[in-house]
Amino acid sequence: YENLTYDEIKPLLPAIHQAIVEPAPSGIMFASGIRLSGVALLAKHRVREGMPLCIQIMEIDKWGKKNRITQCLKALATYGPAAKAVLPELRQLEKDLLAHREARMLAPVIEQTRALIEKIDSATGTVELRGIQDP
Length: 135
Hints:
Blueprint: H1 6-9, H2 13-21, H3 32-44, H4 50-57, H5 65-77, H6 87-99, H7 107-122
Helix pairs in contact: 2-3, 3-4, 3-5, 4-5, 5-7, 6-7
C-alpha cells in the first residue's frame, strides 16, 4: 500500500474498505492489523469513507483497544479540518473512555483524544476529500 500512488490504489479501494469493515478471521490478537493499515491508507489519500471507519473500528471494549484507538486517532488527525464531520463521535468517545472500567490505563489515549478534538475544532481551511466511488 505504501508504495502505490492513489491512481494505482483506486481500483482496490472497495476491497480495502471491505477488509476494514469485516475483521479478518485471524483471531482476536491479530485481527486489527489489516484494518488499521486500511484506515491509515484511506487517511493518507484523504478518502472520505475512512473517517467513519476509524470511529467504527476503535471498539473500545475489545482486546488491543489502546493501540487500535491510538492508530485510529492518528489517522483521523491527517484529515485536518475535514475531520470536523466526526467531532460528535470523538466527543462521545472521550466520554466513553472516561467512563471505561480501564480509564486509568487509557489515560494517555483519553489525553490524545482530547488533544485531537481541540486540534480539529480549531482547524481552519478546507481539505479536499475523495470518495471510494468518485470517478
